[in-house]
Amino acid sequence: MRIKLSPVAVIATTLLMVAGGVGIADAATGGDFLLGKSNSESSMASLSNSKGTPLSLSAPKNTAPLAVNRSTMVKNLNANFVGGLNATDLKPTGGDDFTRVDDNLEIAQLATVTVAQTGKLAAGTYYVFATAIIDLATGNTGAICHVVRANNVGHSLSEGGASGSGFVQAAETVAVKVKNNERLAERCFTEGTGNSSSVLSNAGITAIRVLSSSGTKPVR
Questions:
Q1: Helix, strand, or coil here: 64?
Q2: For residues 41 and 29, is the Cβ–Cβ distance under 8 A?
């Protein structure tokens, strides 16, 4: 059977399809989700997928794929990045090493000795603190210590020391940009003309990773 529609009926049917199918009005609770339109809900909507990720969003470069209007904490949200930093970057980490008082590490005249050294460090910016107490031998007039990279001991990152006789102390501090698996060390030598070895009484180095340094730009 064939049905003939008048021109008026055809126009009315077309308008009905546009209004109901494409969505002139915004979609609301219970209606279809309309792309490119504003959608609203008066109760929570959910999306599930029994075979995989239920929702994937993509956006052009330098454009956020998602926007929210509240800073309220989202429970159970496990994010890979926070402010551009991943979970490894945010994890507190550091390294340290100490030479005990009874180790009696000798420092020969004109020799430079590693007195403390961290283990392998994760990449990042570190605040580094190092100290050493040295019992100067007769003829030695002072001690100088440096914080260095273990793979580049000839380049000083920070220096500390003292002149005198008997026990003297050196202290160093510096912010350092560290590559992955690098070690930091404290190395000391004595000044003077004595032939006897001075004795390191105690030394230590501590490196603590920080997210950023607001002071002097970290040494690279």
A1: coil
A2: yes
Q: What is the pLDDT along the chain (220 residues), one digit of tens a residue?
A: 454 444 544 444 444 444 444 444 566 777 788 888 888 888 888 889 999 998 888 999 999 888 888 989 889 888 888 877 777 777 778 999 998 877 889 999 888 999 999 999 999 999 999 999 999 999 999 999 999 999 999 999 999 999 999 999 999 999 999 999 999 999 999 998 878 899 999 999 999 999 877 777 888 7
- DSSP alpha helix (H) spans, 18-61: none
Count other Cβ atoms within 10 Å, centred on residue 169.
Answer: 16
Q: Are 188 and 143 in contact (CB under 8 A)?
A: yes
Please count the CA atoms within 13 angstroms of the CA of 170 that sit on its side-chain side: 30
The helix (run of H) or strand (run of E) holding residue 100 is none
Quote the tokens at residue 185.
């060390």
Where are the extended beta strands (E) located within 29-108? 81-82, 85-86, 94-99, 105-107
Cα separation of 112 and 160, whole Å?
A: 14
